[in-house]
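Predict the structure of Site-specific integrase.
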Amino acid sequence: MAQGDETVVEYRGEKMNLVELSKRCGISVKTLYARIFTYGKTVEEAATVPVRRASLYGGRPAAGVPRPVPKLKRHPSGRAYSRWRMTGKINERYFGKHGSAEANTAYRKFATDWVAGKYDAATGSGMKNAGGVSVASLAEQWMVHVRDYYTKDGKPTSEVKTCLAAVRLVLEGVENRLATDFDPAALRACRQILIDWGTARSTVNAYINRVVRMFGWGAGQSLVPPGVHGALRLVEKLKAGRSAAPDRPKKRPATDAQIKATIPHLTPSDPERRVKIAAMVRLQRLTGMRSGEVCALEVGDLEHTTDVWIYRVGKANKNRHRGKAQTYYLGPKSIALLTPYLEGNPVGPIFGEGTEDYSHAISRASVKAGSRWSPHQLRHALATEVAEKFRSLDYAAAAIGDTNAVASAVYVHLDPQMRAKIEIARAMG
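Done. Here is the predicted structure for Site-specific integrase.
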C-alpha cells in the first residue's frame, strides 16, 4: 500500500483507515492524508469539504473536444488582439485598431478559421506551423532583437531607428496579415508606398532590405516558414534610371571655400567654442576622420613618440564589431591643432563635444554662410584630394582608413581615368 493507506483515524466516533474513509467520502487517500497531516485539518473537515476542481473553470480541454474561440481583447497599444496557449506556448493574433470595422472583420475571419480547425494542435497545424504569427507580432519581436543587438557601449546605434522606420512601413495596412502570407507582392506594395512618398532610390532599397532581413530573422527563430524569406529575397532591387524613385545627387566634398565661409558663423554667442569647433573642422579636413571619431578623441588614444602621431580609434570605431581596427596618422598641421587641447592631460574626449551637437553647429553655420554641408563631407574632401594628388585609389583608401571599393564608390569624386582621357583628347580630338 501507498504511504498513509493504513493510517487509522477516527471519523464520527468510528475508527477506520484512510482507504476506508476515502471510499466513504469520495475523496482520495492522498488528499485526505495531505489535509490532515500536512495542513492540520480535522478528520471531519478533511472528509467533508469538497475538492475544488479547476477543470470546472477551464484547464486543459478533453481530447477531441473543440476549444472555444479565443476572446477579442484590447491591447495597451489600442489594438484588438486574441491570445491563447497551445502546446505549452503563448500565441497572439492582432487585428487592427480596437473597435474598428477592420478589426472586427479580421477577428470574424480568425474565428471562422479557428472553428474550421486551422489552429488545432491535434492536427499538427498549430499557430507557428500554420504560419499563424502576424506581421505585427513578428515586427514586435524583431525590434526586441534589434534593440538588444545594435548597441555600442550600452547605447543604441542609428540602425535601431532605421529598422523601426522600416517596421512602421511594413505595418502600413498589413499588420493583421499572417506572416506566412506576406509574399513578394506585399513587399512590392510596401516599396511602392516609399516611391509614392518621393523617397530616394537608395533609401527605398535600404528599407526594403531591412524588411527582408526581418523575415529572415523570423525564419531563423521558427516564427515563419523559411520559404517566405526565400521568396522575398527574389524581389529585385530598384535600378538607377529604371524606376520612379528619384536618384539623389551624390554627396560632394566640402570645398575649402565653403569651410572658410562657414567658420565665422559657428556658435556666434560663444567665441571660445567657435575656436574649438573650427579646430575640429580643420582636423577632420586634414585627416578624413568621421565626426564621431574626432569627437571621441582622447589623450590615451594617441601615440606621439615620433614626428607623426597615431590615433588608434577606440569606442568610436565604426567597424569594431567586425574586428577591424581604425587608425589615423597625424602630421605637423594636425599636431599643431591638437596641442593646445592636450594641456593638463585632460580626462575623456579632449574636445568635449557630442557628435550631434558638433554636426548641428556646422550645419547651422553653413546655412548662414549660404551653402549647406555636413562634417562627413570633410572625409569626402580628403579622399578626393589624395586620389588626385597621388593619382592612386590605394592612397585615398589608406588616408581615410577604408577599403578601395568603398573609397571608390563613396568618397573619391574623380574619374580614375580622367587624366588619361584629357591627354587623349588633347592628342587625338
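Confidence is low (pLDDT under 50) at residues 122-131.
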